Amino acid sequence: MDANSALCGFGFTQLEALIYAELLRSAPSTGYRLARDVGKAPPNIYQTLKGLVEKGAIVAAEDAESATSYFPVPPRQLFAAIKDDFAERHHAALTILEAIHAPTAHESVYQLRNVKQVFERALAMIEAADEIILFDMMPPISARLRPAIDQAAQRGVKVVGIAYRPEDAAATIPYNGEKTSDVESRWPGLGLILIIDGREQLIAQLTRDMENVLNAVYSDSVFLSSVLHSAVSSDIRLVALRADATDPLADLTLTITPPPGLRDLQTDVPAVAG
Predict the structure, then answer these.
(1) Is pLDDT of 270 > 70?
(2) Per the confidence metrics, is the pTM higher than 0.70?
(3) I want to staple 28 with a disulfide (CB 3.0 to 4.6 A). Which of 69, 91, 92, 158 is the partner?
(4) CB under 8 Å, gap of 24 or more: what pairs does 231-238 form?
């Protein structure tokens, strides 16, 4: 990317970016001089200068002879204004769109294609958690998601998972006890399993540098998510039993603490005619 194209991704035309960059190099400058320096027709230059003034990218000043010169707004100041404007428009648009959005469960399975999609989906799931989060993930992935998981715990969501490092262990996150390298060696990549409230699930495997997706599947199927919730909770409970025979996670069963998704399924079952 060069200086002339740096602004094109922020709503500036190529000519606007060209003129702004030229002013950064040689301000102040008149419209006539800019037309000569960039090799464009004066009418186009003056129209573009007007647009840049309206965008707050440049300022105009007249001298004693009423000649207009143009100065660029410093890049840091310009981008601060662009960022603030984007944040305002982002908030306004999000508010409008969320007001008309009626979320529905599609009971579908989706394949995610890139790492950004995987982490964005995982963070959205964690933020939406009501009662319980189950997870089994390798430390590099956990490091990215743990702040969001901790925030969920602070608002009362039960967080249960498997730790692959002693420092990551907690009362409901037992330490696996194996070397992380031994666990990772069984798979071609870094694994992530995340189940939220027995309602949605994300299973992914990323390359070890976390630059690419080997496999990634998301589902909002309540049935599939409740089944996976049962399987992963049993695995977590088994890990806890290895360290403490008193079965500290004995309540982690579908019979004692069914997740919201399973309760939904039970409620939706039609009555059988006698």
Answers:
(1) no
(2) no
(3) 69
(4) 232/134, 232/135, 232/136, 232/193, 232/195, 233/134, 233/160, 235/136, 235/162, 236/134, 236/136, 236/160, 236/161, 236/162, 236/174
Look at residue 202 in the predicted model and tell me its pLDDT. 97
Give, to the nearest 10 degrees, the angle between helix 31-38 and helix 14-26: 110
Per-residue pLDDT tens digits for 30-80: 999 999 999 999 999 999 999 999 999 999 988 767 788 999 999 999 999
Give the H or E element holding residue 127.
helix 115-128
Q: What is the CA radius of gyration of the chain?
A: 28
Q: Residue 150 has which token pair?
A: 């901790």
The residue assigned the tokens 């440049």 is: 58
Taking each helix axis from N to C end, the angle separating 260-268 and 222-243, rounded to the nearest 10 degrees, works out to 140
How would you class 134 by CB atoms within 10 Å of its CB: exposed for 0-12, middle for 13-18, buried for 19 or more? Answer: buried
Q: Distance between CA 247 and CA 237 in Å, rounded?
A: 7
Farthest CA pair distance, the chain: 99
Say which DSSP state 178 is in: S
Q: Do the bridges between strand 213-219 and strand 200-206 make them parallel or antiparallel, or are there none, so unpaired?
A: antiparallel
Round to whole Å and give the CA distance between 158 and 130.
Answer: 9
